[in-house]
Write the structure tokens for this entry.
Amino acid sequence: MLMSKKQCQTTKRSGEPCHAAASDTGFCFAHDATKGRERAVARRNGGLQRTTPHVADVALVPKETRSIESVMMILDYALQESLALSNGIQRGRLLVSIAHGYIEALKVGELEQRLNAVEHTLQLRKAAKQQQDQSHKGRFGR
Ligand SMILES: [Zn+2]
């Protein structure tokens, strides 16, 4: 059998020789004992690249968050980004946390609406009373 000098010297578990290209050490990147640290870095970088795909449009996130509506936009963005993550306990927890955020925002939003309705009603009553007082003065005042 013709063995290339540049082929990895490792015999794999299956008994077959490793066909990967070897460096000066005689081993390929995967089988070179001196490359452990580099392999770890490469794995970490690969992992980082896998966990950070942007799927949602960052432009949808408001520059300033001053209303329930903009909070909702951030939640929408976070939800889209989370759905693209690999399935697991962490993503599950994140989704539950986002759902909780939606509930809080909806609650505060509803309270705000109800408060606005109450304030509007009070203003209408005040205006009606002022009108009543003026017409009363008009009839009985001097
Ligand atoms: Zn090899």
Notes: The mean pLDDT is 86. Residues 8, 10, 18, 20, 27-28, 30-31 surround zinc ion (CB under 6 Å). Helices lie at 36-51, 68-83, 89-140. The chain is about 60% helix and 0% strand.
